[in-house]
Amino acid sequence: MMLRRAMMAGASGGVTDPYWANVVSLLHLDGADGSTSTTDQKGKSWTFFGSGSALDTGHAAFGPSSLLLSGGGNSRVEAASTSTDFDLSGNYCAEGWIRPASIGNNAIITIGTSNSERITIGVSSTLGLYLYTASGGSGAVRISSGAGTVSTGVWRHFAATKDSGVWWLFLHGALSGTSSTTVYPSGSLKAYIGAGAVSDSLFHGHIDEGRFTKSVARYTSAFTAPTAPFPNS
């Protein structure tokens, strides 16, 4: 399968996203140091929870800041409500950047409604980057990059895409593997950043540039990790 290019040159020499109409959420996570709010370029509302979740100007993949999560105190960011924008029944892509401060079993992004109905993109000391899916009483890790592939204090791009029923997981542009599992939720779901669906597996470190794209699998082969913030158009 071919790589679906995430960006293309605009007429004025800038960068545009050919799938902008399919983007349902884009979080640059830019703002003042210590802020507990952020702007979604697609207008969604997100809520910061816990005393250990705030924007931090000390580290960023791009821009002035990123989201810093303490890994404790229920620190996480959630979409304000469930939405079919997070429906996983068709093609999909969830991606962003991480800079872990520690690695245990930490959720980066979860989409679902409960631990038994979700997908989670996470990091683990034994699995590296992984994709876990669950639905209808069945759940398991479907893809992982392997121990030692994710390091603390280093920015790395991650992406999970679903294309024609096949899941693809990428770590900094390298393909970690694929899965044809049919075990995942669909319909009106909620997105969680830095946590599982019941505020577990809390992420410790920085997260930047979160993007959710519906009906498009942006990547289906190895690619070069983005070198600039995701475009706003």
Account of the protein in words:
This protein has 233 residues and is mostly beta strands. The chain is 0% helix and 44% strand. It has strands at residues 8-9, 15-16, 23-27, 46-49, 53-56, 66-70, 76-79, 92-100, 105-114, 117-124, 128-135, 138-144, 156-163, 166-171, 174-179, 190-193, 204-214. The strands form 3 sheets. Strands 3, 5, 6, 8, 13, 14, 15 and 17 form an 8-stranded antiparallel β-sheet that branches. Strands 4-7-16-9-10-11-12 form a 7-stranded antiparallel β-sheet, with no helix packed on it. Strands 1-2 form a two-stranded antiparallel ribbon. The radius of gyration is 16 Å and the shape is globular. 47% of the residues are buried. The chain has a single domain (25-214), classed as Jelly Rolls. The protein contains no helices and 17 strands. Mean pLDDT is 94; it is low at 1-13. A hairpin with a 5-residue loop joins strand 1 (8-9) and strand 2.
In terms of topology, how is this protein built?
Elements: E1 8-9, E2 15-16, E3 23-27, E4 46-49, E5 53-56, E6 66-70, E7 76-79, E8 92-100, E9 105-114, E10 117-124, E11 128-135, E12 138-144, E13 156-163, E14 166-171, E15 174-179, E16 190-193, E17 204-214
Protein name: LamG domain-containing protein
Pick out its properties.
Jelly Rolls, eight-stranded antiparallel beta sheet, 233 residues, mainly beta
Please outline what is shown here.
This is LamG domain-containing protein. The protein has 233 residues and is mostly beta strands.
